[in-house]
Amino acid sequence: MFKNKQKEIILITLLGVVLVIGLCYASFSKKKLEPITPTPVTTLTPTPTPLPTPTLEPTPTATPVPMNTPTPEPIVTHPFATSHSLYTEFTEEELELLFRIVEAEVTGGTVETKANVASVIFNRLEAGWWDGDLKSNLLARNQFEVVANGRYKIVEITESTMLACEKAFKGDTAQGALFFDSTGGKSWAAKNLTWIFRDAANHDFYK
Fold first, then answer.
1. Neighbouring residues of 73: CB distance < 8 A, sequence distance ≥ 6
2. How far apart are CA 135 and CA 130, in angstroms?
3. 138-160 b/e with 16+ CB inside 10 Å = b?
4. Which spans in the chain are helix H?
């Protein structure tokens, strides 16, 4: 009877061990089948460090060096040029006549050569020829070839002629000349007056 009791105890112990092993195995299998949820990884975005703003130094300004500007030589002006202009001294009719005659006498010339011819006309006005009347001086008989042949009526007035007349009005460019021609020394003026100079348009000037 003692032996039978001992066998029961061993059998119960074995059953307990088997039961414990079975429970452990079931628990392990359950844990193994459960999916493992990964822990989200937080990505840290680095915050950019602002760069220091550079301080711009002011650019030094160069000090202008004074230049020795030569003093222009004074030009001789006609008496009425000091308080009046070419366009207030004469009428539109007189100015058109002046421009046409200068244009016809020095067609294609420069401002300088045209100003020389205009200066002769203004010098005559200053000298009191034909009572200082511009139109009378321009249309006087045997004074301008382009008036005698009528060429002054068909020319086209250019800007350079207008500028030349303004230049001559402001100052004499013909050195006081009262006559001019292009005869090469064969005119009455060449034989009886004082020759002054010849310009680029081959006009000789006399007084």
1. none
2. 9
3. beeeebbebbeeebbeebebbeb
4. 2-33, 86-89, 92-105, 111-127, 134-139, 145-148, 159-170, 188-192
**Distance set, CA 134 to CA 70, 94, 163, 176 (Å):** 36, 7, 18, 17
Hey, what are 5's tokens? 């009791």
Look up residue 108 and give its DSSP letter. T
pLDDT of residue 160: 96
CA 79 vs. chain centroid, Å, equals 38
- List Cα–Cα distances, 73 to 77, 79, 153, in angstroms: 12, 18, 37
pLDDT tens digits for range 183-207: 888 889 999 999 999 999 999 999 9
Q: Hey, what's the torsion of the CAs at 177, 179, 183, 187, to 10 degrees?
A: -120
pTM passes above 0.70:
no
Name the range with the highest mean pLDDT among 15-29, 61-75, 147-161, 174-188: 147-161
